[in-house]
Amino acid sequence: MNILLSGSWESFLQLLGALIIFVFVLVLVYLVTRWMGAIQKGRSNNKNLHIIETIGVGNNKMISIIEAGTVYLVVSIGKDEVHLLAQLSRDQLKDFSFEEESGSLPQDSFADILGKLKDKLPKKQD
Fold first, then answer.
1. Region 19-25: what's the mean pLDDT?
2. Residue 111 CA: distances (Å) to CA of 17, 92, 98
């Protein structure tokens, strides 16, 4: 009877130890990810270059609008190459929401965003 009891306690302690190690690794991964994100954000805090918008058009292919000083460049980005597609003026852009606070997310609450989307939907007529 003591053999079974000590074996079950040993199994329980091994399970508990594995669970503690797993939680420790998760916390460590979370902290390292946040640290790496902060490093990348610090590196991308340029004064003259900003990526305004990017859209994927295929495997490893994107089209981006890049603000370089006062000029807006439309470039295609592939696996090994970058090509200039067009140069735009500020007047040719449709959405200026990127100018709210450069490098940060909009400060609208979820209710405000939902209200704006609701206003854009067509009204149901009875």
1. 97
2. 44, 31, 20
